[in-house]
User: Fold these one by one.
Assistant:
Number 1:
Amino acid sequence: MSDHAHDATHDHEYHSHGKLYFSIFLALCAFTLISIMADLIHIPNRALLVGVVLSVAVCKALCVLLIFMHLKFERTWKYLLLAPTFILAATIPFALTPDIGTHYYVPTAPQIREYEAQEAAKAAGGDSHGHGDSHDAGHKAEAEKHH
Amino acid sequence: MMTHQAKTPLKMGIAIPNSKLGMWLFLGTEIMFFTAFIGTYIVLRMGSPGWPTDVHVTHISIAAGGINTFVLILSSYFVVVAHDSILAQKFAKAWQFMLWTLLLGVLFLGIKSYEYTGKFEHDILPGHIPENDKQAMDKVVHQYGNIVDAKLNATYPKITKREDQKTELDADIAKLKGKADATAAEKQELADKTALDRLYTEYVDMKEHVRNSWSLGFPQSLFDQYRTRDESNEEWKKKYDAWKTDHKAEIDAGTLKELKDYLNADGAVAPVTLHEVNDKVEALKNDAALKPMLLSLQPAHPILYGNLFASIYFLMTGFHAIHVIVGLIMFALVLKKGSKLCLDDATFVENIGLYWHFVDLVWIFLFPLIYII
């Protein structure tokens, strides 16, 4: 880039990208607001919320990568350099997923049993004795009141 | 940049400075480093039904996370402005914008440490979080035990065993009580030691109930009676079974007489509940004599997957914060040049800018993943 700068200052005046950068900055702020709004309006559909905020995150990431990190203006080396890292990065979740997503056995982690007991107690009317979910729910409601 | 190759003789490799290539290769490894964490988090999260999402439970502050997101975006913008200014040979402006970036990085860390402080205060730390009622009760007892030990050790530093300390405490109280012409200091000592004795007694009471998993209302004095109830004796068993179907039925004259009031229909003592234990904590904390000693004792509330959540939270935000600190050191290095900043620094500024944008990029994903979802 210093070569580029050298050329630019000798051959012709350097063209500032200030306006482009500022508009990207505004876009990033707007995207952040969308994420926060999505949280504030309490979207009942969890999948939709996840979809919205992660899409927003990807858009923001593209803005930063392409403009702030100048990838849009770089040459072919960017694909050579970044493709393997992205492929390897994506491999990790895919490699781990079978253990969580497609196992043949019934998971018996104590947390899963606790969660099932809580859900069963909730379905039974919430007057559980051993498990504290009804109490816990009360605690949450109390905390909410304080806010 | 296109003109570059035409002017210079044929050059091997990629037409960018070596340092910039190095930075991009490094960022390639960084992408894999952080996606390993993020990917693992997503997979674990999807395999954990009942993951804590309530911010009142996890003490996650979306406001703090949102402000930090804005702080990093603004600092990223300032870096590109600084780089742009260097290329336009406006070096003073570039220096100023890098200073702002540095200050914003410090602000980010400040907000982050405020959040961390909240986590420490609420003990949202890996390995510290009870995940069910039993663990929550054990945690309260454990906390209480630590307080009692600290108080006894402060009062009797030369005695090591808790039981011996208690014996000494009883002896001291008896001695002070026997004094007819006690001075004001001695009266105060008596009050303090009596309070300590109660603190200890209440602790043992709670500990024994939780250990046996018997309701706090069941008096300790009946523990042995209940334990030694003779269910192997046929005669006794018959009467006991009759009592279980009809509570008014006559049972053994001696053994179960007092016990009767505390047993439920199955003939067992009602189990201790977290609700009882937490209410007891509140009651003890409101007790005038015990209050000053129990300031750090808190009721416990179970958080399902709380430990996994805390591990992931600190791992990801912690590594991110370390990256922020490294970035700040880089900016400090270039800012040190002051008015000597020149066009030759453009590559270095671009490289640390790339690094800084990457730190921003990681946060762009951490914010929705940890704070919103």
Number 2:
Amino acid sequence: MSGSHATLPAVETILLWTGKRGVGARRFASPYVGGFFEKTFRKGIAMAKITFPKTGLSLDHIKINGDVEQMKIDYFAASPEVDIERAELLTDYFLANGLFRRDRITALDAAKAYRHILKNRKPVVRHTFGYKKIKGQKGMVRLDLRDKSPFAGSTTSKSKGVILYPEWLALTLWPELHTMENRAANPFQLSGEDADTLNSKVFPAWINFNIMDLTRNKVYGAGEKSSPLLKLHDYLVFFLVSKFQCISHTIPDFKKALGVGLRGVIDEAKTKQAKAGGEEQKDFYQAMIEGMTGIIEYSHSLADEAARLAINAHDSEKDELSEIAGIYRNVPENPATTFREGLTTIWLCWIACHLENSNTGLSLGRLDQLLYPLYRDDVDAGRLTPEKAVELVCHLWLKIGDHVPSIPESGEQLFGGTGSNQAITLGGVDENGEDAVNDLTYVMLRATELMMLRDPNLNCRYHPEKSSREYLERICEVNVNTRATPAMHNDRAIIDAMMKKGESEKQARDYGVVGCVEPTSAGRGYMATGAILLNLASALEMTLFNGRHRHTGDAQIGPKTGDPAKFTSYLQFRSAFETQARWLMKQAVTLNNIAGGIHQKYHPTPILSTLFEGPMEKGVDLVFAGAERNSSGVAIIGFADTADCLSAVEKKVYGDQSLTWDDLMDALEKNYKGYEALQTELRNPAKTPKYGNEDSLADQNAAFIAEMLDDEFGKSPHYRGAGIHYRVGYWTMTSHAGYGRLTKALPNGRGDRENFTSGITPVSGETPGLTKTLNSVASVPSRFLSSGVAFNIKYTPYQSMVVDGENEEAIRAKMIKSFADSVAGYFQGDGNGSKGGVEIQFNITDEKIFRDAQNNPDKYVDLLVRVSGYTAYFIDLNPQMQNEIIERTEYDLFTCKAVTYNL
Amino acid sequence: MSANPLVVRIKRHSHEDGPGIRSVAFLKGCPMRCVFCHNPEGLDPGHDLAFATTRCIGCGRCATVCHAGAIDMDSRGRVIRQECNLCGECARVCPSGALAMVGIAMEEEDLAEVLLRDRVYYQISGGGVTLSGGECAMWPDYSGKLLETLKRSGVHTLMETSGYFDYGKFQEKILPWLDTVYYDIKIIDDELHRRHTSRSNAVILDNFRRLAREDGVDVHARVPLIPGITDSRENLEAIVEFLADCGASSVTLLPYNPLGVLSRERLGLAATGISPSFLAPAEERKIREMFKKLIAQARGNKISVS
């Protein structure tokens, strides 16, 4: 191999490094070297990827063993505990090094701080106790744990921890430090001693040094707290910029960590450092070295702890602890050579990512592709069975869910019941466009089905031409069995949309899902897909009220676009709406870019940058556009409601002329009181055009909005540099319910404070025909939906069709077939240029069960639901959000009543 | 009678009217008057005005626009049928759709366009289009042209029929474009058949025999279970015998669907005295058991339920 190292792609770099290092000391040669890795990732040479029989893909003979079962029970019983370890260590380091007085934090400063945390945190190999809430009792009680995980270490020192990021939004918990244990929804445990530490040391230090206040003070100057943009943000009802909360919403690249180990990465950084020109670049490579060294130090302290525990342990536990000690001494420092080592490497890197960046949508990518060479090698060599692999994956899934976001009680409205939304992506096509589903895909699906966890958030890719029918039926079956996961994504539509935004075909084909639903080229696209949440209904509101919003009273917020009663045509109204919407988008982008500048000054991200394609080659941190691909993502709230409002005005006021502006405005003012017939008419899809019903007027308004948003955000300037723009996605978490509560009556017949519809989903109850709805949603051109969509559909579970247990198996089989048919049709598209629908996700629970769960939450601790992008436990949601899910249109896939007899 | 039938409604994503995912077009007009008709909107070939009490919000818009004085806000059925001239104004202004005109005039190509929208779903699921009614064989030209368009677009076609039609016209216009026929066999005793359906079954049974001998079409018999009317041992036994005699290979029992009772009420038609509720599962199971035994008895061999 010849030529400059700097221009080599990652894989060749790996081969090169291994050649230098030699593998003599290793128990097995790394399959990433020369062999499998090269075959599968580089040349795409066909190999036997699926060895399970077609009829045995569900792996339903594999059950969870007693240890995992017990840990799962404990997991559901445990309440999250606020963990101050990270926040305190970070604060100590900042205080000791005078960083709070600095007006810039470099990557090297940050990396040293994170190394300090990794090195000094408590290495936890076995969690021994947690806390649980007893219904009706104040406070919490101790819960003994029987931790048997093969994966040591955790993101916090607790078994289920709330990580505190004082540089982001942890300070919003300040007012409730002593009351969090008794919250009605999602209570957090916190000891009095830890609360004191936060009160007296940690939180005060960050008052002026968190991203929000740095933005206030550094951009606008102290005393100028009422800058119009921040004020607009504080009103909440227009948009939220998540720069104040996180940097993440992307997928790290684990390939190098797996293939050459972190020592190999450090060596590469040293080589680059030696050749680097300026001090700043040298420091950046030093930051990479510090970060990776910190991870190695942490793994070694876990190894020491495991060895220490092994001394007094017995039997299998002694063996297990010794094995953990051995593995953690080896990886992630060295290349992973077994499946279990591979999982361990990813887990430790994952912990480190979360000590650097907040747990908001950081996602794991295509684990079935990444780990397949190790899995195959182990199975072929007889070191691993599918049963053992399922067990390991179950353990990893439990670990991934070991932390929850520090959402204050007031945030429950917008993001209620959320986990960290750590998306994992399975299946789809490989970089050559061929079917990439393999045995490990099915192993991970089985683990998902057995565990039924909220986090990780499972996503399956499907290609209408390349994916197999068996695979599709299997992911439908997992949905039927888990009631809510995995979500399904259309490779053909998504790859096309990404390429239209500039990704190469290869980069686009290697997309993984981030956070809720956002496609991102895995390990190389720094897309910050949750950068902005925009409430589109606010633009409509300002159109109706000439730039004012009823939530903010008489204040003139948006531009004066005129009194709608004077508009003589629908187009005049629509163009006023467009003016308001584009103005609102510009405000959100401007604030995001300002806050992005604060990230560049105060929050570089050296660990994530090291675990990413681009920064190593460029010598540039992710926040300065070090990644191969760059953008930021916007999530739109109120899409269907806004589209339906436009259609109602177009049809009733200007088309039929059956409604005057005076009457409409009076009806909105009075929340349709005295206008019940009008409200009924505006809600009735047979009387008023509704998006999602194959009504061309309504669907055209929806497409108009999608095109306008894509146009404006697609050309908006970006703080990371020229040529970088924003992308638009349609997913809403629970904010469609939260924003709904802040919004008064609208022209589509929606009353005061009612929920908006989630994601890109049509308004509930107004789209009675399933295929009509699927066709309508698929007709929104996918090229405008480049940051993903959440399309929620609810199916009646087959169990509701079974009477007295008769023909249960046949009914179940029929449901899975019909389910798969509906998804395949939606993704297929009409062949007239449509690439098919982008994404679809399901709830398979009927109203009876939901109502029972509302009345008897204790019986339903693990009732999983799809919110809008992520999965949550139904009983964790606030009542408004629970009702939103119950009110979603439920479709029957079939009835099983007619019986045929052979004669 | 005009050349084109009216369409009662188009049902999309149906799993009950043939294999796979289907769209079903219900055409208006039927020569029979079965007391147990579960879709009475399909009886009259002309427009009907339907009133659904449960959807009415009592706004009174209908009464304001009615020129015929046919709206009585105090009556349960809302419409004074003998005064109503079916002008449709009340349905047009009704915000909830409680008052609705039944019967949409659609050119055959417009109907075909709607029915072809789910072509992808048909292909994937092994589904297609079903024509139902009413009795769509009453409209051989329209139905035939429609089915031809669908068939030429590669869509699987199925017709649900009472069997009461002119075989010659059916054979000429419709049959060439049909893949499958779902054919109702209700009552074998002609006297009882006349009493409950208003027509003799001679044509129906004769048409079935002829159709069963045709090549290139799959004819499938279906028996609607109507308590006290079609579910007697004697009738089911006679049906099995008749079907076996015709060489039929399978038969489907349709569970009793009482929704026609409600529909009649909505249309202001007199009740026929049939049961307003579904059969209890145990009751239905008993009939199915009996039916299985009858088949076993008739053929003397094992029966498998598919």
